[in-house]
Design a protein that fits this description.
Strand order of the largest sheet: 1-2-3
Low-confidence stretches: 1-11
Strand content: 5-15%
Order of helices and strands: EEEHHHHHHHHHHHHHH
């Protein structure tokens, strides 16, 4: 039988839910923030389902989602627009959690799978499958995952010097990312014109043409990875205190670090295989989530909700507000680039 026990922990009100020998601690503010973000996500999703060349009312959208509409309205909402909206939510949440994992591991707000090269590695693996193998979607997922893992191992080994420091890993990752970016450009230039145009458009990060099959396959993989991330979240927070402090509390630091890296890379690779590299969400979402929830460290749930909202809102802007429909990655680059400039400015001021 589960019970809800409100407590005050170090000045913060928390909720403890117990079920037999299992206890889950939730901060009240994080719960409220996630609830507000969920409402914002629901409103944005309904707006996205309403808007298009065939405009619909909120009532028609809700009726179609509950099975009350048939014909063209059901076709537009459920078969055409809903896969894209669902993909934006699932992929955005995955990118938010991936960024939270790496920022927690490296203890650096600039740690991002895109900046340190893991996204570029996944893109390279996917490009090889597209341009060389001409493989299926399942092979594309495998290629992106393999490319991301190989890149992660390479960056880790190049940055290793009696341990791995977060700043060194970021610097090495930036160099590897630049090299892989050049390789990706070369692969596209050497490909046939049709393949090159398709790969280049996909490489900007786009949800165009996302089908229910991609959403189900990618969503299943992401759901399993998010569950693993949740299991590893407690030792992840303990490791933010330092490896020695975490080890003294019984954390198997090398195994947990490896598991978190694998989970973070796999989340990024799964999204890249389905939609191409969607930049900067994994950088921005964890920091916005942390500031909204006012937590001492990076937490996964706010990062996931912020990532989902950012991806969905960016895709809406790209499709319906921009003068011409754009890939969602272009909007996230604009938003993320501005945030990165702000973050660098504030970090520089702290060091003065």
């Amino acid at each position: 039988m589960s019970t809800h026990i409100p407590r005050v922990d170090l000045g913060r009100r928390v909720l403890v839910q117990r079920h037999r020998r299992i206890a889950v601690r939730l901060q009240w503010r994080s719960v409220v923030v996630c609830a507000v973000l969920a409402v914002a996500i629901a409103c944005t999703a309904v707006l996205a389902l309403m808007t298009g060349s065939y405009a619909l009312s909120p009532g028609q959208v809700l009726s179609a989602l509950t099975g009350g509409e048939t014909g063209i309205v059901h076709e537009v909402v459920v078969e055409w627009r809903l896969p894209r909206v669902t993909a934006a939510l699932v992929f955005g949440a995955a990118l938010g959690v991936s960024g939270a994992v790496f920022q927690s591991l490296m203890r650096n707000p600039l740690a991002d799978p895109g900046i340190v090269g893991f996204s570029q590695g996944s893109y390279t693996g996917a490009l090889i499958v597209i341009l060389v193998v001409n493989g299926t979607y399942t092979q594309l997922v495998g290629g992106a995952l393999l490319g991301g893992m190989v890149t992660a191992v390479a960056v880790y080994l190049l940055a290793y010097r009696r341990g791995v420091q977060g700043f060194r890993l970021i610097i090495v990752g930036i160099g590897v990312s630049a090299m892989l970016g050049s390789l990706n450009t070369w692969l596209i230039l050497k490909a046939d014109l049709d393949q090159a145009m398709s790969a280049a458009a996909w490489g900007a990060g786009s949800l165009n043409g996302v089908s229910w099959n991609q959403v189900l396959v990618g969503g299943t993989c992401i759901a399993g990875l998010l569950l693993l991330a949740r299991v590893l979240s407690r030792p992840m927070r303990q490791m933010e205190l330092g490896d020695d402090a975490a080890a003294s509390q019984g954390v198997r630091v090398p195994a947990v670090r490896l598991g978190l890296i694998l989970v973070g890379v796999a989340l990024t690779a799964t999204v890249t295989a389905a939609s191409g590299p969607i930049a900067f969400i994994s950088l921005v979402a964890p920091q916005i989530g942390r500031r909204l929830a006012r937590t001492a460290g990076i937490t996964l749930a706010p990062a996931a909700f912020v990532g989902a909202l950012l991806c969905l809102a960016s895709d809406y802007l790209a499709q319906h507000v921009a003068p011409t429909p754009l890939p969602v990655g272009i909007i996230t680059v604009v938003l993320g680039g501005g945030y990165l400039a702000y973050l660098l400015f504030t970090e520089a001021r702290k060091r003065l």
